[in-house]
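Problem 3 from the worked examples.
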Amino acid sequence: MRLIDAYRNAHPDDPRSDDEILNLYEKTFGTERLAQAGFEEFAKPEQTPPQSPSPDWEALERYNRIADASLIGELGRGLETGYYGLKASLGSTGAMIGRVLEEPELEKGGMATYHQAVQDMAQIEPPAVGKITEVGGPREFGLWAARKTGELAPIMAGGVALSAAGKVAGTGLGALALGTKSPHIGEVAVATALLPDLLYNLALTQNYAELIDSGADPVSALKAQVYNLPAAALFSIMQIRAATKAMANLKQSLPPGTPPPPTAIKAITEQAIKSGPTHLLLGESGMLVSEAGRMLAESYATNKIPSHEEIWNRLVDAAAAGGLIGAGMTAFEAGSAGIGRAMRPAEKPGRYQKR
């Protein structure tokens, strides 16, 4: 199969020369991979390229997307996808609440919002690399990570912001109810932040409308949401933890007698080392539990059991996305530590030296 002929058929208006196009593919994928894919331009003389009656359009279009993609473009489309995904989740939540409250108009409006958001997402250019299992090199990993980061950023940022707002409100309520010197104010603040954050994450992890569109009856779709509770709890713990630590970092709070890091870079490094393992664990666990919960909900509500291959692929993708979430939360905490240290007044020489 000749790559250039297949490309010209798919993109007749591309003004670039054949050599420019071939060089772009070679630079992006490497000669060996293109030869293995059956493109005879890249086969060695002793190789007989596989004969194909027609071009593999799906593979070719994927090659084209990767060749033309940029990190900024993938990040931007990921953010757009994340926005519509958030909108779809809120619409689905509205439909679920309408069903529970027996309010047909609310349920109908929620489903309409969900369907419109799904249609809007379908108009976005598909990802250059949609699954972690499709990654074949550093460039492809970068494109995948940029798109996935864009998709997840609005959701996680919303949770952290909600957690921070809940903690501020809880601190004020605790001080009013218990007195400003009470040692239990922090507990009140966490409890105040936990409930709205848990509801927020449950709204994002639930798949009520998706199950309804898959043919599930409403009662089964509602009952199936219990499988999404553990993931919502894990994400809430991660977001509240990140918000709490970032607020402490920005207020430059340190235990009595603890010397601050000498520089902002040192503060960033120390915070990343401390927080990284915990956030990676929470991110991986949250995404794996979330994907497992969704599959259990689908199986319960629709009586359809996914194949072993589908289960494996979905869990691998979830684990990879969880790693990105953990890295993002670690960067958030570390950044707040660096900013807090940069804002801290210079310490007096010898203040923390032992006497």
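Problem 4, a separate protein:
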Amino acid sequence: MTQTEMKLNGIGTYYNASFQFIDENINQGLGNRVAIYHQDEEITYNQLQRNVNKFGNVLKELGVESEQRLLMVCNDTPEFISTFFGAVKIGAVPIPVNTIMQPGDYEYFLNNSRARVLVIHEEHWSEICHLRSRFPYLKEVIIISNHHIVSEKGVKDYHFLMNDASEYLESAYTTVNDSAFWLYTSGSTGEPKGVIHLQKSMENCFNSYAKNILDIQSDDITFSASKLFFAYGLGNGMYFPMGAGASTVLMSDRSTPENVFETIEQYKPTIFFGVPTLYGAMINLAEETGKIFDLSSIRICVSAGEALPSEYVRKWKKLFNLDILDGIGSTEVNHIFLSNKIGEIQPGSTGKVVPGYEAKIVNELGETLPPNEPGDLLIKGESIASNYWNLHEVNKQRFLGEWFHTGDKYYTDEKGYFWYYGRSDDMIKVSGIWVSPIEIESSILHHQSVLEVAVVPEKSKDNLIKPKAFIVLKDGIEPSENLANEMKQFVKENLAPYKYPRIIEFIDELPKTATGKIQRFKLTE
């Protein structure tokens, strides 16, 4: 009997994503296939299943129950996957978050989600442990380390707990309508929003995108430079390969061009996932050094996170004889819903609707627009999140029945290709991550020399979007290049480093309305 055939009266049809993506590979006879390549490790599906079961039992021993939440501040290591699916298997809700945030951000994540457990790599815990008394909902901290952590009240060693845990675990009785995991994204106010995904969200993305667009097979090896804590990376590096019984390459280090090229040459992946800024940096490294990098194992490359410049598509093809499939997804939809396809690439376009989704461009009245008229992009599909956590008013604005309001402006051409036109709000996407201009402005305003500031998107020569800050200085302060660099460093020290303004322009006054509201559109013009 399959998991979908099991049913209890009053509860519904059984479905658990951990069973689908881990246990089913064992049932299909793939237990000895390598699931994860990481540094010198090769972890088979049999080993992965044991680790998933062990961590699920660890949580049960700690008293974690169905629907309770745990926050994951985890690098791209095998422990990430065991933690994620171990939690899902017992009906708990894992919440992976960005590992390059500031301590105050983690305080927000923990308190907003009311997570009972924190699973965290040791280097990240050292940055926030001094705030422990400010996490009122947190009961247990589990630290992932390469050496034994001395246990103290509420702080335990990951591997020590795993050593004593049972390898056998039955899946919790969950259904397709139960929460499986959360992801955090940023909204127009700058406050991160908890996005609640249901048990079948990952399988829906796998069936729609990984099967139809990538034609993923069990002999594929995926490598995602985008990390697992992103919705994009979570599919690329975890549930896409797990759904196909394929293999994933995990890289804990930063995704620099050098590290990425080295990893590709070492593990020889067949599918590579990146973001436009990384593709640009890799192209620049190859052109500047003249070095020949071996990408011959790759059959297809994927880009998402922000619009991919057509020049990158052309240069990548010339350098490596490889196509890049550009697409767009979102945290709320869980993965890519518009994409170019193999043999149907339109450089500069986001492509067409991925099978399994519907899309429409509407005006402010909700009326569908004809080709070449820009409007708001709405998406319909089974992988869309159920809602945002604790944001009733925002839910009514963005989740419109079966449709989700993406916040992106698009238009279509006569052939059905979608073309990006901008954002419906002031958010800026930097290296594939949404950034609130208000958050950057607030940070800059703490600098002693700043009177006023406005942050807007600015296109670079490669057509990539970067944050630009227009700053009015206090009386007596003279603008200079050194002062601009000092302010960039100031933001890096107070926010996640990727949020700093790449360009700073000092001006005498900001354009404002009669009521004193800054007119950002004039600065953009």
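Solution to problem 4. The mean pLDDT is 92. The radius of gyration is 23 Å.
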